[in-house]
Structure formats: C-alpha cells, structure tokens
Amino acid sequence: GISVWENVDVGNILSVRNSVSIGQGGLMSQGAGQFSISTSTSLASTTALSLFVGDDANPGAVRDVLKLARGMYGSTTASANGIGAGLLFSAQNLFGTTTDIARIAGVFTVNGGPATTSALTFSTLAGTTLAEWMRLDSTGNLGIGTTSPYAKLSVVGQVIGAYFTSTTTSINTF
C-alpha cells in the first residue's frame, strides 16, 4: 500500500484499483462505481457536498452540474422501457440500518427511435418498498396518485381545497 500524509498533485489521471479513503471520513471508494462521502463528526451544520461552476461567457444559461446516467456498460444490447437514473435518498432507521426512503428518477417510457419519450418520477417509502406517487410525463401532464396522467393535472384520490377555479365553460367534474 501507499500512505501520503501531506499533499498529492495529480496532473492527469489517478487510477485506484480497489478502494481508497481520503481524509478522516471524507471521500471513499470501495470498488468500481461506489463512492461515498462520510465523516467521523456531525454534518448537522456542514454542507456534505458542494459544487460551484462558474461561467462568465453565458451567465444566464442553465448548466448541468451533475449528470446521472445508466446503461449497460460495454453492451450494445438495447435497453428496455423503464430504465433510467435517479437520486436515491437514504437514512438510518431506528434499528441502525440504512434504508432507502425516497427517489426522484428520470425513466424512459418509450425507448428508441424518433418516438422516444421519458418521465420524471417521484417515489417515497411505503412499508418496505419505494412506491411512485407522482409523475411528470413527456407531454407535460402531471399525475398524482397515478403513473398514467391523462391531463395537465391528473389526481387519483381525494382532493381537498378551499375552492377551484375553471377558465372554461365546459362542464367540470370534481
């Protein structure tokens, strides 16, 4: 093994074959594609991960600062509908076990060709599994309680509100 107690400056690529731990806690890798940020102290008042991207050339434009991608590495086989990438939120439960508690994901709904479409999904923990509760589809329809929204706002289940306003003269069903 190698131990470094001060600074390391890598000009191009640093490759680590097995695992690496940086700092007391810090950035850890335990194999291919597995990275985590940890600390031995409380992060209650500390930002665990921070990224700044400056762009003087076009300050009003949207810049992607994180790209989540999923595919079949090294494969030329087409992937299926439903494949996607997401942000998975986890927390430690009362028994000290890390549990997945919520996910925001982008998924293909039709994968391939000129008719390729996707959706943004929102899921939370329901018992022991993540359940999808909200979906924004490729046509701009938002579904709450349904994975198949059929209008700009589709709600399956009871809706409670002080009042509803319609901007059309057609009959509305609530």
Task: Explain what the structure shows.
- This protein has strands at 20-22, 25-29, 35-39, 84-92, 98-110, 117-126, 129-136, 142-144, 153-155.
- It has 174 residues and is mostly beta strands.
- A hairpin with a 6-residue loop joins strand 5 (98-110) and strand 6 (117-126).
- The protein is extended.
- The N and C termini lie far apart (68 Å).
Describe what is shown at a glance.
The chain has 174 residues and is mostly beta strands. Helices cover 0% and strands 34% of the residues. It is extended and about 75 Å long.
Chain-wise SSE layout:
Elements: E1 20-22, E2 25-29, E3 35-39, E4 84-92, E5 98-110, E6 117-126, E7 129-136, E8 142-144, E9 153-155
Parallel strand pairs: 8-9
Antiparallel strand pairs: 1-2, 2-3, 4-5, 5-6, 6-7, 7-8
Mean pLDDT: 76
Tally the helices: 0
> Structural class, from helix and strand content?
mainly beta
What is the tally of beta strands?
A: 9
**Subunit organisation of the chains:** single chain
SSE topology string: EEEEEEEEE
Please tell me how large the radius of gyration is: 22 Å
Give the termini distance in whole angstroms.
Answer: 68 Å
Adjacency order of strands in the biggest sheet:
4-5-6-7-8-9
Helix content: under 10%
Label the overall shape. extended
Low-confidence stretches: none
Mind summarizing the main beta sheet?
Answer: 6 strands, mixed
Q: Beta-sheet strand percentage? A: 25-35%
